[in-house]
């Protein structure tokens, strides 16, 4: 499986699309976090959806999707740049999580907040209710409601949440009023073909092979794939700076009370810890 997002456009229809496939990147995303399976699955789906949404941006910037609810999973956040550099996290009540919870049971009454921040220009924020049976159905509603664009999403996550993939299809503006019916029929035709994709195909085939498998009777132009990556931004140096900012007296006070100072990255879950020897070295060196 490639760790990439690939854009494509139909030359014989007013439709564009994207394919994303992820494996090791999401493993990096969650390796230090002991997420329950239902939480990890939702976070994986949000990861796929957010990157597909980022690919629709026409400018440099970032997009943040945030699920807020009153269910056992009360917060899930993914932040992605236009270059598909990702970070994210989730908050949940472990005691309330059950293995076979549905999308709605896990989130309760929830909403999706989409924040788009161009490097230059004004920030945009959209909010939709997560009142459908799946995240993909809710994202479709977001595009229809906020951008008036017919959009379809296919999001697939395997049983072990090791392989994640997705396809986004969007109808482009019609050239004239007389083309609207034709374009709608074409869009439905392409959606029907796309939904025949099987899990083993979307996880194992290359983007080009997926497009041939689905649309070999259509005229499709495929663009160069772009890499998906994870970068939470944490580091030993940044953790050292945080501890130094406490001052030696406060650092020693925490050591006497807790035995060590521990800094945990909110996004990747990696722990940076400081015992007495490390604290002494940290302040002696500065």
From TrEMBL:
GO CC field: cytoplasm
A Pfam family of this chain: HSP33
Keywords: Chaperone, Cytoplasm, Disulfide bond, Redox-active center, Zinc
GO BP annotations, alphabetical order: protein refolding
MF terms (GO), sorted A to Z: protein folding chaperone; unfolded protein binding
Signal sequence interval, chain numbering: none
InterPro entries: Heat_shock_Hsp33, Heat_shock_Hsp33_C, Heat_shock_Hsp33_N, Hsp33_helix_hairpin_bin_dom_sf
PANTHER family: 33 KDA CHAPERONIN
Protein's UniProt name: Redox-regulated molecular chaperone Hsp33
Species of origin: Paraphotobacterium marinum
């Amino acid at each position: 499986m490639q760790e990439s997002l690939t854009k494509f456009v139909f030359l014989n229809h007013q439709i564009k699309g994207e394919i994303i496939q992820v494996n090791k990147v999401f493993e990096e995303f969650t390796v230090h976090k002991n997420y329950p399976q239902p939480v990890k699955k939702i976070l994986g789906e949000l990861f796929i959806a957010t990157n597909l949404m980022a690919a629709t941006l026409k400018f440099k910037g970032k997009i943040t999707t945030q699920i807020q609810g009153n269910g056992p999973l009360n917060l899930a956040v993914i932040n992605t740049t236009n270059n598909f550099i990702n970070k994210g996290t989730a908050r949940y009540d472990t005691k309330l999580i059950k293995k076979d919870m549905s999308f709605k049971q896990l989130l309760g009454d929830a909403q999706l907040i989409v924040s788009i921040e161009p490097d230059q220009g004004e920030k945009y924020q959209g909010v939709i209710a997560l009142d459908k049976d799946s995240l993909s159905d809710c994202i479709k509603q977001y595009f229809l409601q906020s951008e008036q664009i017919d959009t379809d999403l296919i999001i697939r996550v395997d049983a072990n949440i090791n392989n994640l993939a997705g396809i986004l299809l969007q109808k482009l503006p019609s050239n004239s009023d007389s083309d609207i019916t034709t374009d709608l029929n074409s869009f439905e035709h392409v959606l029907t073909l796309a939904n025949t994709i099987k899990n083993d195909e979307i996880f194992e085939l290359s983007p080009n092979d997926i497009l041939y498998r689905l649309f070999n009777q259509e005229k499709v132009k495929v663009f160069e794939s772009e890499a998906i990556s994870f970068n939470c931004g944490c580091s030993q140096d940044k953790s050292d700076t945080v501890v130094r900012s406490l001052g030696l007296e406060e650092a020693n006070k925490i050591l006497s009370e807790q035995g060590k100072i521990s800094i945990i990255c909110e996004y990747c879950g990696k722990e940076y810890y400081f015992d007495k020897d490390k604290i002494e070295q940290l302040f002696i060196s500065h």
